[in-house]
TrEMBL record:
This is GNAT family acetyltransferase. The keyword RNA-binding does not apply. It comes from Azospirillum lipoferum. One of its GO terms (molecular function) is acyltransferase activity, transferring groups other than amino-acyl groups. Its EC number is 2.3.1.-. InterPro entries: Acyl_CoA_acyltransferase, Bact_Acetyltransf, GNAT_dom. CDD domains: NAT_SF (cd04301). Residues 5-145 form the N-acetyltransferase domain.
Amino acid sequence: MTAAVTIRPCTAEDCDAVVALWTACGLVVPWNNPAADFTLALSKSSSTVLAAIDDGGRIVGTAMVGQDGHRGWIYYVAVDPALQGQGLGRRMVAEAEGWLTAAGMPKVQLLVRETNQRVLAFYERLGYARSPVTMMQKWLTNPSP
Ligand SMILES: CC(C)(COP(=O)(O)OP(=O)(O)OC[C@H]1O[C@@H](n2cnc3c(N)ncnc32)[C@H](O)[C@@H]1OP(=O)(O)O)[C@@H](O)C(=O)NCCC(=O)NCCS
């Protein structure tokens, strides 16, 4: 099934389908506006959202990827629940890593919510290791409604 999938950067027209996928995958939380996240990522040359498209033209996977001038970051890795366990998640992360390598980034980092600990095993299978750091954060604008 995933052999027929092609991967390309998203365009603005993909927003609704991408947000629907993120919602189906449990990645949407009240303090983030996923459509605003999507639009912001597409508005910068330093970031994008990669999408996997099946042979029917449907978006079945995503990975948001970007670099901050020091490190590469991956967000919103998602695979259609009906297609999980067939290697597409691994492929999306590999595509994002390739994007970052092409951008000259020496390291890739990602965040896993404390409520989503079961995904740690997925990233460990892909060669990721837990980092001995504590993330701190502060909103610079009000979170989007
Ligand atoms: C996490 C997610 C993207 C994985 O996608 P997937 O297509 O099911 O993963 P793959 O089939 O490519 O799996 C890659 C490897 O990880 C392993 N793996 C996947 N999920 C795993 C899990 N929960 N526990 C242990 N191993 C897992 C697979 O067995 C596979 O191993 P192998 O290639 O060595 O045989 C998908 O489950 C998903 O969309 N989850 C909901 C959204 C989410 O939590 N995203 C991450 C936010 S940080």
